Amino acid sequence: NGRGVKMGKKKLQGADGMNFQLQLTIKGLESINLPEENLTNESGNDIMKISCWGGKLSAYVNLPNAIRPNNVQPFQLSDCIKIELVRNQVIEHMRSYLQKHLKDKYSDEFLSMMSVTKMECNLTIKCVGDCKPKDVIRLFERSFAKVTVYKETDPNGKTHRKPERGITTTKPHEWVLKVYDKTFQQRQAGNLKVESNLIRVELVFLDRMLDRMYSSKKSLEDILTRKAIKALIDQYQETFDEICKKNITPMLNACVQEIFECLTCSTPRKEVSETLIKCKELIVDTEVLRKALKKWYVFKKQPDSSKRIVSFYREKNMGFPEDVLRTLKLMHNSLG
Fold first, then answer.
1. Fewer CB atoms < 10 Å away: N or C end of the chain?
2. What are the Cα distances from residue 67, in Å, to 74, 172, 209, 219, 229?
3. pLDDT (tens digit, 9 = 90+) per residue, 196-234?
């Protein structure tokens, strides 16, 4: 594209789905139920879903599906040249749904009163080098006290925990973080052409966060604009950075410290092999092991052989995760 954009400098995060709601308060509509209607793209993926249950009108809009076959690639800032077309399409669809069902009780005010309740923003990238999606998921899983892992139901109706597929964690009223194997999810959904080793880090912003981001400008008209999408992407970046600082970095430092302490308490001359067995779970990236070894050599006042030892165990294919922190760094550099 002639601008000399390097791969790592591509801005890859963007919007995905968003939810809007309105509680109808007009006499005769306060507990109305209306059928769900979907507007789909040529690939059969939802651009929009509208329904009304107990007088609560709900609309879901998926921006990537409005301009591409699926949502593997989120709706980026560069896609905003099409935002007006999408906005018109969405508002038109919403209007015709309401006019059809509410007839003479319909008023244009309903559209302007629908307010955003959830917005998804994500970063989807291919893992670096030997890193696998499950390694990134594991890193995030260890960084939070409470996570929910992905569950699968087998043909007999039994559920199995599948932490390697994805995890979710929440900061109530602010955001939900979902980290999952996007390649696996797409293959399950029948998209067999999807690239391998895609990891998605998704943030769903909730009520309090949306109030801070948009204050009272939360209608369909307000949110389906370049300015609002830009605010979403900026907030994603800020929250992602905050998670790295408050959760991931302290977890990594704690792993290094614990491996170091394990090395110092092990049987002399068997320190490394004993530590690798005892601390296997803590080695979320070989880089963590290297840092702990480096610290240990300084402590023993010996020359630093950390790199040599890490290469020795890498040759032995011990299955320690590699390039996970490099993948995290690529995520960081892909923001903005």
1. N
2. 10, 32, 27, 21, 15
3. 999 999 999 999 999 999 998 999 999 999 999 999 999
